[in-house]
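Cont'd.
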Amino acid sequence: MLGVVFLAVITSLTFAVGNFLAVKRKESGLPIMNEIAAAIEEGADAFIRHEYSVIFKIAIIIAVILGILVSWYTGVAFLIGAIMSSSAGWIGMRIAVIANVRVSNTARTTKSLGDTLKVAFQGGSVMGLSVGGFALLGLGLVYLIFGKILGQLEEINLTIITNWIGINFIPFTMSVSGYALGCSIIAMFDRVGGGIYTKAADMGADLVGKTEAHIPEDDPRNPATIADNVGDNVGDVAGLGADLLESYVGAIISSIVLASYIFYTSKSLENAITYNLTKKLLEYPILFSAIGILSCVIGIASLLIRKKIKNPHKALNFSTWVSEGCTIFFTLIFTIFYFKNENFGLLGFRMGFISPWVSSVIGILAGIIIGILAEYYTSYDYNPTKNISSSSNEGASLTITSGLALGMKSTILPVIVLGFSIILADFVGGLYGVAMAAIGMLSAVSATVSVDTYGPIADNAGGISEMSKLEPEVREITDHLDSVGNTTAAIGKGFAIGSAALAALSLFASYLYTQAGPGHTTGYSLIINLMDTFSLAGAIIGAALPYLFSGILIEAVAKAAKQMVQEVRRQFKENPKILSGEAKPDYKRCIKISSAGAINQMKIPAFISVLTPLVTGFIFGAKFVGGLLIGTTLSSIMLAIFTANSGGAWDNAKKYIEQGRFGGKGSLAHSAAVIGDTVGDPLKDTVGPSLDILIKIMAVISLIMVNIFGKYNLVGLLGK
Amino acid sequence: MSIYYYLTIFPIESLIASMLEPSSFGSYLATGSKKGSYENNIFIEIEPECSEDFDWQYAKEKCKIKSNNEPKHSVYLSIYRTLEKVPINSMKSIFLTTKDGRTLELKKQDINKNNFNKKFYIYQELCPTRPLITTILNPIDYIKIMTDYNSKTFLPKIAFADIKTLNFHSEDTGSVGPLYDTNIEHLHNCINEVLFNKDKKFKIVERSNVDKFSYQIIEDGIYIGDNENIIFYKMPSKEDLRRNHYDWGRSAQIF
């Protein structure tokens, strides 16, 4: 198995390196372009270094705590996860700041939309391939070191053990859970920190620059414009990459943990699952993902080798469809050979050996439908977003209310799709099938992240073109590519939320299984009953938690944005030559404000996600935390869809008006739409993406710690 | 350093002497020195000493390099009934400055009468008063009637821009700014009144329309005239703006 995994890792990372070098070799253009790009690079680099220095101190503390309380290998695996996630984020940020100026220069020298798209996508593919490659590399290392070398995957070790403080667990599940938690913690900091940074800069640049001083987007006279472009790299690239890597790993490990516990808890049953089948079930998700990564290499290459590209959106979609199609085809062949002749009796595989594959295809299809729904609700090609534009004619209040209404209404269809896919995947492949559906949904992660990363690179290229005052044709090319990126971003968010929901369900099932003690080999030992007062109370509080979390995030963005607004106003007031173009603004001061705001504010939301299940678990016990997980998962899904779609729709409603509808730029409708977009900014780019990480961090933390607070909790002690 | 003389016609009427060349003067007017005003400004460069109504000597005395080595930004020579005192033939280029201080120069051009084939026109008067007008009169006839001594609404000189008319039933308006955001029904009534009431040559839609006026909405250009002379500053086409004045176009929210 390891051969296939490392083949996929080597192929994807080699392809990533090749694309990295190919982009880097391209000409970077005029001195002014390089000067601006250097300022963006310097700002992004400084922030990521500062952010990672803070995160790694916290990560080491968590690793030590896990090492002491759970097992040393959980701590080590946690660090592997943290390193993989941060490596992917850092590489993504590096390529983005190298690619931005080269995309701009390609547009300048070729005046070709297709050629420029290719450079932007090639840059994005470095991030996409790194996400897939590093996620699998880490999993491969965990599998090799802990599964193979330390023998945690041997039959004798696939059993529940008790550690020195009396916690019960299956060793390999703790290794993979530690790995996933490492990825999740980095993703949480990257997403929250990057999200606060990018939106504070964006809002600061817009609120004073555009609204008060009437400066166009990306005008070099705006002091916050470099910070805004830095934000694209640290938030929309590094944050997004770490987020999707975490989702991907979360989906894979949920199936591994589940398979381990199903094996153990079925031991005493008549038709127990054999060790050989269990090993296959443990390896199948990793191999499936490896094939997915290889398929993405084909999908990404299919776009890069095309000679002529007329429609960027179609070309990007084509690359994703090729990746998905190859994944479906190759995994079918693989599944037939891999599972043929196995007896799945106890697992409830209704379609025999093909069931896990069918479940994963259900996930892929559900992901595609959720993506299409996200596009329907957020693209100005369709009525929901057009209606917001139209409402803007009557002022900002109606823009806000119609956007809120759209966001709320937009939750139902994706949730129905999710619900049906859970039922269908479970019908076909049991809980293992649900976990496979999550993996299926993210099987083309390298392709989708490549497409998602292309957007901010094109956005940055637009900024550089604008600030360098390149010809209108150049700016029109980069603007066009940027607008395509907005829609692809909304689709990517749909995938992330959907897979988080499915992964959370299988992690939750594992949470119930992990209550089993040594020798308890007959299924769940913990049943969550919502008639139980602790579970119900947990569910209610859990449902409120995402609102608290989101509120803190929005407040953090608002605080940093307020500082940014004051700084931009101050610069304009104290140095009028900035606006006349005779003096340069102090870009660095704005970068510092965003950076300090993000670093200071990112810790509290991250601590909430880690500490809530722990604190409540030690007070109220496992049933309460079970309820908490249900409540948090359910309300996070709704809130994440709502915020992503409302924010995306507000953004595109503004763009629809800017294209010359309802009075166009400068009209009352436009002013109202700008306000809507500003309200939606922190929702779609900070809150929404952080919620799917919240779900998984809480689920994995609970999974790891449930045996501790299951035994030692205040209510239990008082009861005794 | 040279001294320039600028006749500002929008949003206020004045004659200013300045050591700043037009684009710097526009930027100074729009964004101010420290006050941060952010206004559209329209001004015309005029020949020095073109009229005896102004104290040109005072301007020369005041327009000196400052102690910090900066040129003198502005010396006001007149702020009331200024346009009427400046001879039309002394007017050089007109400059349109955006709220963030970008300036577009328009040169005088011949009027193309072949364009005067509309059933009705909408004019934004820029100076000395600033109403929005609907009329069946083409620009030349409108200037004639407004600068007729015998008229009750006589103005010695007038500056105005002709305004784009839209298909008000379509959402595809183009980027026209805030002019048509409110009171569309009243505008329709005003248009109908000049179209169907033979006694009504023009009708005021808004008495003062300073806030809603934007450069996006100018159709052919800006006309300035009295009862003898008319000059015309043609607005560049969108394509011309895109090719040659893209930054101004973006700043004026045309792109």
